[in-house]
Every structure is written in structure tokens, then in C-alpha cells.
Amino acid sequence: MGTLDGKVAIITGVGRPDGIGEATALKMAEEGASVVISDICRTYEGDMSWYPLGGWEYLESVVKKIEDMGKKARAFKVDITKKDEIEEMVKETVKAFNRIDILVNNAGSGVGVGPFLDITEAAWDKTMEVNVKGTFFCMRAVIPEMLKVGGGRIINLSSTAGLMGPAEYGAYSPSKFAIIGMTQTVALEYAPKNILINAVCPHFVETSMGRDEYQYIAMLNDITPEEAREKSIKTIPIGRPATGRDIADVIYFLASPLGSYMVGQAVPITGGGELWSP
Ligand SMILES: NC(=O)c1ccc[n+]([C@@H]2O[C@H](COP(=O)([O-])OP(=O)(O)OC[C@H]3O[C@@H](n4cnc5c(N)ncnc54)[C@H](O)[C@@H]3O)[C@@H](O)[C@H]2O)c1
Predict the structure, then answer these.
(1) 8-203+243-269: what CATH class?
(2) What is the largest CA-CA distance in the chain?
(3) Which of 10, 1, 13 is nearest to 96 (CA)?
(4) What span, in angstroms and rounded, lies between the C-alpha atoms of 83 and 80?
(5) What residue spans in the chain does CATH classification 3.40.50.720 cover?
(6) What's the CA angle centered on 129, arms 105 and 158, to 5 degrees?
(7) DSSP state of 114
(8) Is the Cβ–Cβ distance between 103 and 183 less than 8 Å?
(9) CA of 97 to the centre of ligand 1 (A)
């Protein structure tokens, strides 16, 4: 018996190796949930086409891992800035599994980092569109389905950069603050209807996005990515960076019966480190 037997979870942004999304999908499936995963599966337009994003083949490999566990999974190509693509995923999920109990708004974009004067208008817009509007669209599409089944859980991915603004995160940090504001206001509106909404705020997580971060810190400080990693680990009392699984365990807590008194919280996951200490 799993603690999420009979539940149906949607998780966005699962298309990159070692991501928080994949770890969360596997954890939810281990606990018995049927899992719907998605990712953008195409590049950003124009000048941002270099930005690394998740792909269909990786999504399919995660579906296979879940099916090999004897659990059910489906994958969808969804750009969370496109309302029609989200609505199609929600419709197909209900068709396949009859209900939606859990939404993890994990998809996010780090395209809006760098020296403030170098952040283009396009990077600002993309960051806000993906991190803020995408979370807004996904919550709006799923809440009506949760109301039909008497409640649900939503977990939004913020960051320690959503609790304290680090230097050179001029668009990313404001977008992650906005996610916490949205989490708090919508949580208070829907707690009486048994939809419990919270955010998690990881510090450094060694995912594909986290490793991109080491490259960035290395470039800024004229050191190697390995040295950047060591520098970052020295700031973490627990002595190692987080893995996707560390974050997935906290997301699971909030999605499971264990999290039944959690409403509108922004939970830092830092290994004991300062909120921001690259
Ligand atoms: N890695 C870290 O250190 C860290 C720290 C704090 C918060 N976070 C947040 O955790 C979440 C997961 O990040 P991760 O580290 O697992 O990185 P990741 O790169 O594996 O996951 C982010 C995913 O979002 C997807 N995505 C981007 N734009 C999209 C769009 N328009 N539509 C659909 N999908 C889109 C990407 O394709 C990618 O697969 C993100 O919201 C990130 O901001 C990460």
C-alpha cells in the first residue's frame, strides 16, 4: 500500500536528466500515484534558442521507468506559457485517470540571470512568462478539477532566490518572489475548499540547471566549474549539494497525508546554508 494510492499527479518540467521533476515523478509513483509528466520539448524562440530545455525522448524514458515499477504514467508536450496546451493535458489526464489530485509546478526558466544591464527585455519577459504566468495558467487549469473531487494539493517551485534577492538574478529572483506571493494568496482562497497550496524554496540542487549554475559562477569568478562546485559546497553545513530526490521528498511531504496542515508556506530547503551564499 502506498500513501498516494488512487491519486493522480501532474508534474511539469520533467524533460531534463537528474531534474527535480523526474525525482518527484518517481517518488509520487513509488507512493502509488498515477503520474502525468510534461515538458516544453522545443527551443525558446529567437535569441534565447541556446537555452537548454527538456525533450520528448527523456520524458518517454521517465514514463518507462514508472511503468517498469508497475505504475501508470503519461507524457505530454506542454509549453506552460500556452494555455491551450495546458488545457489539453488536463483534459487528457481526466480522460485517462478520471481525476487530478496533485499539481507540481516544477517547470521553470533560469534565462533571466546575469549582470542586470545585460538582461534583455526578451529574457525578462520569458522569465516572467514561464515562472509566473505559467504557474498561474497551470493552477487555473487544474483547480476546477480538484474542486470536483473535493480537494487537492499544489506545490509551486520557488527558490531561496524567492526569499532573498542574490546579486545578478535580476529577472529570476523577482519571478520566484512572485511565485511565493501567488502561492500565499491562492492558498488562502482555496484552503476552505481543501486545496492546500504551498511552495518549496531549494538552494543549490545538482540538476542540469544546477550544473549550468556552476558554469555561470565559474565564468564570473574566473575559476573552473569544479572549483565553483567546491566553493558552493563549502557554504553548505551538511557538506553536499541537494539532489533532485532531496527536494522531491519535501514536495512529497506537502502532497501526502503528512502535509495536511500546511497552507501557504514557502519551505526553504538549504542543507543548513544561508539563504543565498554562492
Ligand atoms: N537546480 C537548482 O539549483 C534550483 C534551485 C531552486 C529552484 N529551482 C527550481 O526548480 C525547478 C526545477 O529545476 P531543475 O533544477 O530540476 O532544472 P531542470 O532544468 O531540470 O528543470 C526545469 C524544466 O523546466 C522546463 N521548462 C522551461 N521552460 C518551459 C516552458 N515554457 N514550458 C514547459 N517547460 C519548461 C525545462 O525544459 C526543464 O526541463 C525550476 O522551477 C527551478 O527554477 C532549481
Answers:
(1) alpha beta
(2) 54
(3) 10
(4) 7
(5) 8-203+243-269
(6) 40
(7) B
(8) no
(9) 26
Please indicate whether residue 152, judged by its CB atom, sits closer than 6 Å to ligand 1: no
C-alpha cell of 20? 527535480
Give the list of residues 6+ apart from residue 185 with CB closer than 8 angstroms, or none: none
CA of 53 to the centre of ligand 1 (A): 8
pLDDT tens per residue, range 84-111: 999 999 999 999 999 999 999 999 999 9
For residues 12 and 138, the answer to whether their CB atoms sit within 8 Å is yes
- Find the 1 Cα to ligand 1 centroid distance in Å: 31
Task: Give which of 244, 250, 255 is closest to 102, Cα–Cα.
Answer: 255
State the distance between the two ends of the chain, measured CA to CA, in whole angstroms.
42
Find the catalytic residue in 58, 169, 172, 252: 172
Hey, whose CA ends up nearest to atom 20 of ligand 1?
A: 19
Residue owning the nearest CA to atom 31 of ligand 1:
79
pLDDT in tens, 10-67: 999 999 999 999 999 999 999 999 999 999 999 999 999 999 999 999 999 999 999 9
Nine-digit cell string for 148:
470536483
pTM above 0.85, yes or no: yes
Verify whether residue 172 is a known catalytic residue: yes
Q: Please calculate the CA angle 61-63-66 and round it to the nearest 5 degrees.
A: 110
3-class DSSP state for residue 195?
A: strand
